[in-house]
Amino acid sequence: MVDVVIRDEMIRLGQFVKLAGAVESGAMAKEAIAEGLVEVNGEVCCQRGRQLHVGDVVAVDGQFSVSGKKEVFRVSH
């Protein structure tokens, strides 16, 4: 699991997938999400604008632990 630091207390799924390094660009994040390759809390999520909050787990072909200013998001591939 990789820690990814974010600046705000919330981040949108598309932004997070790119920030975590799971894809190389925003366009690739959009495509991966639209194709159902991204899971949030164990369920496929096709909403690029979905807000991620403390304790959410995101899976995109690997695992990430996302750290914010005060809170931690969990991401897994």
Can you describe what's shown?
- The chain has 77 residues and is of the alpha/beta class.
- It has a single domain (2-68), classed as Structural Genomics Hypothetical 15.5 Kd Protein In mrcA-pckA Intergenic Region, Chain A (Roll).
- The protein has helices at 13-19, 26-34; strands at 2-5, 11-12, 39-40, 43-44, 51-52, 57-59, 64-67, 72-75.
- Helix 1 crosses helix 2 (26-34).
- The protein is globular.
- It starts with a strand and ends with a strand.
Topology diagram in text:
Blueprint: E1 2-5, E2 11-12, H1 13-19, H2 26-34, E3 39-40, E4 43-44, E5 51-52, E6 57-59, E7 64-67, E8 72-75
Parallel strand pairs: 1-7, 6-8
Antiparallel strand pairs: 2-5, 3-4, 3-6, 7-8
Helix pairs in contact: 1-2
Q: Tags for this entry?
A:
single chain; 77 residues; alpha/beta; Structural Genomics Hypothetical 15.5 Kd Protein In mrcA-pckA Intergenic Region, Chain A; six-stranded mixed sheet; 8 strands; 21% helix; 30% strand
